[in-house]
Amino acid sequence: MSDTIDVIETNVQFLTAEEAVKHIPEVPTMMVGGFGFAGMPRYLSQAVIHEDSIHDITLICNSLGTISVLNDLFVQNRIKKVIGSFFSTNKELVKAYREGLVDIDLLPQGTFTEAIRLGGAGIPAFYTPTAAGTDLGRGKETRIYNGREHILEQSLYADVAVIKAHKADKAGNLVYRKAARNFNPIMATAAKLTIVEVDEIVEIGELDPDSIVTPFIFVDIVVKKEEE
């Protein structure tokens, strides 16, 4: 067995945050990883805020927490819709919703996760018993399976996923650390364009293959985090 490592050729680009967000469509459906601050791509999120051409965003994220880096987007009225699970503690979003400036689609967290996973797998919709018979299931198609009511949920797929990982190698393979393992890996598979913020970029072969969660095939742009 050879001890040499074959050179891997990929189309992954290594850009600055400012360069990376120029690739986001002006009116995007955008996934952002993390649960509040935990595992959120905060450095890239700041770059999105500073890119004034991006507007009328449909934002897909699990939770914004009490205070989010993205709050300025609500203040600037640049988000038209939010899809996720837990938003009631974010005052800027609640204020925008009450003023009729933003729509909210709430999904149970497990349904939200599965909708992203299946979006990445190319499956457009699925039935689930979660939320059947509740306000969250109102108006959705239903069927009975095994004597239990299920509702039809649409899978989620985005123009761009903005995610956070711990390290990337120079091929674009990703490893995650702690809370960043939450929604970031599945979002990487469920978008036309995946932009990832990392703490460190290493040489090919330095990452333990068993630790790689997201292979380079799902990654388009890597941005190394600088001091915020």
From TrEMBL:
InterPro entries: 3-oxoacid_CoA-transf_A (IPR012792), CoA_trans_fam_I (IPR004165), NagB/RpiA_transferase-like (IPR037171). The keyword Transferase applies. The keyword Transferase applies. Keywords: Transferase. Pfam families: CoA_trans (PF01144). One of its GO terms (molecular function) is transferase activity. It comes from the Bacteria. This is CoA transferase subunit A. It comes from Bacillus seohaeanensis.
